């Protein structure tokens, strides 16, 4: 039981660090997905511990939401890439101060 | 394992919610089947009519809502325990719908930019290519923005009335996803707009990851997602407290990101500046209203029994937001960024109200509760911010909007009406008496004082003074600086934007002079139900 929660915490941290350090928007986005999947793992593990289905149902909802987020996210990253020929988050720096 | 129970759907109370969702779906169908020329009038009429009907519906539902089982609060728990339709939820529904109506008027404005709306002709066309030139020459415009806005309004309504963590997460995403797209659809300065959309999306998805991990942790603590049962678990102190405290912190990150509180405010100025101004106006006002509804509900209903573990955190964040917002606003040279930082400061003021005394029983007669004060502040903030951004969209030159502050010099002579209205709204934001901002600030400060949060109130008064300096500086530029040679002109808007501005300014004035009725309404709304 605890092992699964610890694993989910590790995955969440990896995703978090990835978002903060990676430069490619697609990779940043993949790290966000990793964070969401770490949440799913924790939800399912806690559902098993508490013996109810709430957490498992939540995991399904999270998958649907993540799929919708992919649609929106890739559309935005695509338009940026086609305009700038680059998906680096460092290049997108017109808006500052 | 428990057996699945079919939830009952309380159509009589929830129909405004379903109406907004149905309209959004209908808008998609119109987009698919109506000829191009018919889409703009069809979408605008559909959106305006539907939002108005939903607003009337909310008033009717609020009139007839039953008294909840125990205590003075009114409302029902609907949809098998996932939604709470109570006084604060209905107040926020009404406010979001009113702001969305004004937002629709701004979205539909065509006179400012030579007969087309502020949205891209063809968002998929790469800027500077033949495809874009053709789309511009044909006066195309994206009418998908209306259904997108309705989906977002639907999400805001769910967000403010969610009674369990999963529904709240779904509401958060349904309100955010359309806004990410809307931010990227500007007709002019498309690179800035796309960049705003990218930043908003990546940071928004990042913060919803935190929110979701918080959901998982709190679920691990309580064994349920329902707010009432989480509260029960805290009272009985069953479960692992580490999970609870970590969970509260992570949930707070997700929610405070949405309202743009420091230190999670980094996206606010970039997105507010890059997004099309009508979208900025709608999103700055309505998102904050809905998200504060969710913050109040989750902290009061689910974590109300554990307030000593979250109050110190909110103290710090409130103080930080006020000072970061006010201090960074002073350094800005762009009007939209200045208003964005000012909204960060306002977030701090509203959080001050969240720290106040919650229960009506602990107060002397005539004193306001914190829910009442926060709801009132949200109403004043929503109307003045929306009108202020609408006014920014009127100041233009050949290249589109001019939001550089130094080029607003001499606007008082160029257009006394616009400069006067803008100056009035700035004074309201500063909290000068006889404006709604003053009454709102007074209400949140007094509830925070009653709860003993005097350090926050002292900080808030100091931050108000700092903020007042910056608003007065803008007024000085408009009235006392000599106009620069190539100064912008004020384009006279059609009746749509004019109505939105007039309503915003009138609300700011009326709520400042006669705050009683709305304060009473927020009081009648009562507390949250479990």
Main attributes of the structure:
heterodimer, A: mainly alpha, 3 helices, B: mainly alpha, three-stranded antiparallel β-sheet, 20 helices, 70% helix, 3% strand, globular, NADH dehydrogenase (quinone) (non-electrogenic) activity (chain B), quinone binding (chain B)
Q: Can I get a quick summary?
A:
By secondary structure, chain A is an all-alpha fold. Chain A is 79% helix and 0% strand. Chain B has 530 residues and is an all-alpha fold.
Description:
The complex is a heterodimer of chains A (97) and B (530). Chain A has 97 residues and is an all-alpha fold. Helix content of chain A is 79%, strand content 0%. Chain A has helices spanning 2-21, 25-50, 54-84. In chain A, helix 1 (2-21) packs antiparallel against helix 2 (25-50) and helix 2 packs antiparallel against helix 3 (54-84). Chain A is elongated and about 50 Å long. By secondary structure, chain B is mostly helical. Chain B has one domain (11-525). Chain B is built from 20 helices and five strands. In chain B, helix 5 packs antiparallel against helix 6 and helix 10 packs antiparallel against helix 11. The two termini of chain B are 24 Å apart.
- Rg value of chain A: 16 Å
Strand residues, percent of chain A: under 5%
Main structural class of chain A? mainly alpha
Q: Residue ranges of chain A: pLDDT <50 for 5 or more in a row? A: none
User: What composes the largest sheet of chain A?
Assistant: none
- Assign an overall shape of chain B: globular
Q: What's the helix count of chain A?
A: 3
Number of strands of chain B: 5
Helix/strand class of chain B: mainly alpha
Structural domain count of chain B: 1
Largest beta sheet: strand ordering of chain B:
4-3-5
Give the strand content of chain B. under 5%
Protein name (chain B): NADH-quinone oxidoreductase subunit N
Membrane topology (chain B): Multi-pass membrane protein
Subcellular location (chain B): Cell membrane; Endomembrane system; Membrane
GO molecular function, one term (chain B): NADH dehydrogenase (quinone) (non-electrogenic) activity
């Amino acid at each position: 039981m605890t092992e699964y929660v610890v694993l989910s915490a590790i995955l969440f941290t990896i995703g978090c660090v990835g978002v903060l350090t990676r430069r490619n928007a697609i990779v940043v986005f993949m790290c966000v997905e990793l964070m969401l999947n770490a949440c799913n793992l924790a939800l399912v593990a806690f559902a098993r511990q508490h013996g109810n289905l709430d957490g498992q149902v939540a995991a399904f909802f999270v998958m649907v939401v993540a799929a919708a987020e992919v649609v929106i996210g890739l559309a935005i990253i695509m338009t940026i890439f086609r305009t700038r020929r680059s998906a680096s988050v460092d290049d997108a720096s017109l808006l500052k101060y | 394992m428990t057996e699945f129970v079919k939830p009952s759907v309380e159509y009589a109370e929830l129909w405004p919610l379903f109406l907004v969702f149905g309209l959004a779906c209908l808008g998609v169908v119109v987009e698919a089947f109506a000829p191009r020329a018919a889409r703009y009038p069809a979408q605008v009429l559909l959106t305006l009519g539907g939002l108005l009907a939903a607003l009337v519906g909310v008033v009717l539902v609020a009139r007839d809502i039953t008294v909840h089982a125990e205590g003075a609060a009114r409302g029902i728990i609907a949809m098998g325990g996932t939604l709470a339709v109570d006084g604060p939820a209905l107040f926020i529904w009404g406010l979001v719908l009113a702001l969305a109506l004004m937002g629709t008027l701004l979205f539909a404005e065509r006179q400012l930019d030579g007969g087309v709306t502020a949205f891209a002709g063809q968002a998929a066309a790469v800027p500077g290519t033949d495809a874009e030139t053709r789309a511009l020459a044909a006066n195309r415009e994206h009418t998908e923005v209306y259904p997108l806005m309705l989906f977002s309004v639907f999400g805001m309504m769910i967000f403010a009335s969610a009674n369990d963590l999963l529904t709240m997460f779904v509401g958060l995403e349904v309100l955010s996803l359309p806004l990410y797209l809307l931010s990227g659809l500007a007709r002019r300065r498309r690179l800035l707009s796309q960049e705003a959309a990218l930043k908003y999306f990546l940071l928004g998805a990042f913060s919803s990851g935190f929110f979701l991990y918080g959901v998982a942790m709190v679920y691990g603590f309580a064994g349920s997602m329902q707010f009432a049962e989480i509260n029960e678990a805290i009272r009985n102190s069953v479960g692992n407290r580490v999970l609870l405290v970590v969970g509260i912190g992570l949930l707070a990150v997700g929610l405070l990101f949405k309202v743009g509180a420091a230190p999670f405010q980094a996206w606010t100025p970039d997105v507010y500046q890059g997004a099309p101004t009508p979208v900025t106006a709608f999103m700055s006002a309505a998102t904050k209203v809905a998200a504060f509804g969710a913050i109040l509900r989750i902290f009061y209903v689910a974590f109300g029994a554990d307030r000593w573990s979250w109050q110190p955190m909110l103290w710090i964040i409130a103080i930080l937001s006020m000072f970061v917002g006010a201090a960074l606003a002073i350094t800005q040279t762009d009007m939209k960024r200045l208003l964005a930082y000012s909204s960060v400061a306002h977030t701090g003021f509203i959080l001050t109200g969240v720290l106040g005394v919650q229960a009506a029983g602990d107060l002397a007669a005539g004193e306001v509760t914190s829910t009442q004060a926060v709801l009132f502040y949200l109403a004043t903030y929503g109307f003045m911010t929306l009108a202020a951004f609408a006014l920014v969209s009127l100041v233009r030159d050949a290249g589109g909007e001019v939001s550089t502050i130094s080029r607003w010099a001499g606007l008082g002579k160029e257009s006394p009406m616009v400069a006067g209205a803008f100056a009035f709204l700035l004074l309201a934001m500063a909290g000068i008496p006889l404006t709604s901002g003053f009454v709102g600030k007074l209400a949140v400060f007094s509830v925070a004082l009653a709860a003993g949060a005097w350090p926050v109130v002292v900080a808030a008064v100091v931050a108000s003074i700092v903020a007042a300096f910056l608003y007065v500086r803008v007024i000085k530029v408009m009235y006392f600086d000599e106009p620069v040679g190539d100064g912008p002109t004020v384009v006279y808007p059609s009746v749509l934007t004019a109505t939105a501005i007039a309503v915003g300014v009138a609300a700011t004035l009326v709520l400042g002079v006669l705050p009683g009725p709305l304060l009473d309404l927020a009081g009648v709304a009562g507390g949250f139900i479990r």
